[in-house]
Amino acid sequence: MASILDQYEEESNRGAVRRPNQLVGDMASSIYFIRYIIGPGFVDARLETELPIFNKKKVTFKPPDSITHFVVSNNFLIMAMSSNILLRLDLEHPDQPDEVELPKSVVDKVYKIFLDPTGRHLIISMTSQENFYISRNWKKPKPIVKMKGHLIECVGWNWQNANNNTTSAILLGTNKGFIFETELSASCEDNKFFQGNFDQYLKQMFTLKGKVTGLEFDRMPSQDMNMYKYYILATTPGRIYQFIGQVSSSADPPMFSNLFQQYESVPSNVRFIELPGELDYSELHLFFPQFRQQASKFAWMTGAGVYLGEICLKGSAGPNSILSNAKLLSYKKDQDDSSTKPLSMVLTEFHILILYPKSVKAISVLSEDLVYDDIYPEVSHEKLLGICKDSLKGTIWTYTCDTVYKYTVTKEDRDVWQMYLDQNEYELAKEYCKNNPMHMDKVLTKQANYLFAAGKHQEGAAMFALTQNSFEEIALKLMKLPQKEALKTFVQKKLEALKPQEKTQLTMLVIWMIELFLNQLGELKEQVQDGTVEYENTQEEFRKFLHQAKIKECVSHNRSVVYDLIASHGDVEDLVFFAILMKDFERVIGHHIQHEHYIGALETLTKQTDLELYYKFSPLLMQYIPKETVEAWIKQGKQLDPKKLIPALVQYDHQRFREQGNEAIRYLEFCVQKLDNKDLAIHNYLLSLYAKLQPDNLMTYLELQGEDPLSICYDVKYALRLCAEFDHKKACVHIFSLMGLYEEAVDTALAVDVELAKQQANKPEEEDRDMRKKLWLRIARHVVEEEKDIKRAMEFLHDCDHLKIEDILPFFPDFVTIDHFKDAIISSLQEYNHHIDSLKKEMEEATQSAEEIRKEIQSFRNKYAYVKAEDKCSSCAYPLMTRAFYLFPCSHKFHMDCLISEVLPSLPPSTRSQVESLQRKLAEGETTTVQKLGGIGHLKDMDVKSKLDEFVASECTLCGDFMIRCVDKLFVEEDEWASIAADWE
Fold first, then answer.
1. Quick one: pLDDT at residue 27?
2. 811: pLDDT confidence band, cut at 50, 70 and 90?
3. Do 779 and 750 touch, CB atoms closer than 8 A?
4. Which of 22, 337, 388, 735 is deepest in the core (most CB within 10 A)?
């Protein structure tokens, strides 16, 4: 049996050798080149002929006996021999074949064998009406006692079963038309236990007319979680039955009892299709796209042909049917074997393989054509016995009594796209050629031509754009149409298909697309339809097109071309839109200004972020819409530089000067008050506008600026010249006062108000008595000479303490009588008398004080004190008598040098230098005169010593004023702190 393994591995290796060439062929079929301006075309450059879909290989081995039956599932192969021996082989482990001996009888033979989809459960039906079950791991078959006396014609396996130890609920069909439900378990091999529990139950469900040749069932979608919905297909040689019903998820076995009961009780509910024929047998097969998925197709081999259709579980076939789109395929027989009947068949996704005694024919389920005819010349002396398919692995096997053949299926769907295309099923065709650009192009081209011929030009154009047809050919074809929507769609789709690096093609198509939109809008305008919904929709579509990121990037590099193109159509509205889209706000603003649409220009200006445009266009906008312009400036706040806006502030129309000026003042006030701007130019211009337009606010501004020359923000001299030019005397008075020109301030104030002049006269410092007196005299003279108000002049004597009656008398005219200032003279004389009396009193007090001082000095000359030999210096604590010393009345005693060292650091630098000089003179013992030191004349030694005493010994350092003056002196000087801290560490 090793020959099977050898053959299997040989074929696998051969397939592996061919695979690289096959891949080369696939890739070569996808090669394309750039043709014309737009769009690649495909070149069919296959390097070798593709392998056929069905490739047959003969398995070269010699079976020990004739093969009577052959089944395979999930790579598990079982052959029944004429000697009643089962040969089992796991194709994944072919070196471990297994033989199972069936119970021997002289006349008993295997009738049929049935292998479940997983390859784990096998049912054997014998001609003696004995039936056996064998699990994959068993060595001996076990009889199905309850089925004794029945020939099993077919088995309906449970495709949803996931338990390897049991078949779950299955259906058995017999030659007498009975349908049974049973469940076979392989969980125990104990004979005693097995006999009682192997076939757990057996229940007859239904009876058909004629033998049951096929059984299939599967679960259907259900919204009820507690109920399952099933369909069951059963066939006899001439009929196919459908049973549909619900099964409770918690129902006890048998699970299909209630489902069949509804048909038993009401026989009219039984649905079937009858196809009479000459065959007394038939086969039923389902196709599952993947294991445990729902079946998608069914095929029933009858005498009339193969009845083929789809399994529809969504209800489109009706409430009591799942078979839809069914058709009958006739057998493709040769002329010389017209009497040959089909033996068996298998169903693949797109083909039906029908077995004849000498050949295998494959019919396409789509085109119904014979696509493969495999004649077996080597079996001329015998015939083919059967064909089967591994439902999980997809391999197909045929066999004779002594030979086995294996079919491999290669790219079964390779031509499906063409079949669907021939049937005008374009969507299905595209589904099966997604991996082949050349095939896809053919499908798209045919679909586009179909749509175009049907009058669906726009849909056809969109489809043409996806093909690789000549761009020029399609474009010219679409340009002949009266409506340009199809052409626009075509160009739009081509644009979407371009790659970012194809910049030349992209630019050309974008410009053409813009031209198409502009032409369409222009035609609508010519037809006076520019206010219609069609025009608005077209314009909106055009603007959305320009807004696309790829389009926007393209036109930004070619904006001059687009500008010229839009301008050539006279489409001002879209020209403005495009400029805004390109953020070319300068052009937009210039356009608005050119058409005197200043509000629109300002709106565009405020929507952009380039501040330079504010400085460029504000001068013009300020002339026509000053209020709105200033509002826009204020909204920008600190982002704008007010100095750069001065040209806009000074540009004005004389007829509207006041309005523009007032708005300029409003903005400058905002800068000064809200933004706290300190620029000299801003404040000077604001001051000039106040002087020209709002003199009432001029003094308010000057007062807010204050009188500190360091804090004011305007040029004082410029302000004085400006106020003098416009004759704002109060402002001039304020500025004169600010500049310290009090005389000019008083003179100017006298021309306005005497009270204002009096305020200015009080501004000089208190110490500057002469200036104050001078200013008050100016005011008094003005009052006397100009206003002739003697009484008011006399009042100045009370307002100013520096004026006397004699100061203002010279200003009085000669005719003035003494009665006008009699009271002032009397008051002045009385004041003089009081002053003389106070001076006399002070002189007496001074004389008395001097006498007391002389007495005290005389008493000090006679005062003495005792110094003991053990007395010590209050500073150094050494004996006092060792050197010259000072003795104070408070009894503190100091050495001369100790006292000098205590006092010297606290003396002023000039006095300190004098003390040091006197010390040097005393040390040198000079008897000559000493040059003058700080007002000191020629002195003798005693004078030197007396002067030194005056500096250092005027008071005791411990209890005199010296100690009080040193109370805030640091114990450790700052320059000594570092060294002291280091000593402590």
1. 27
2. low
3. yes
4. 735
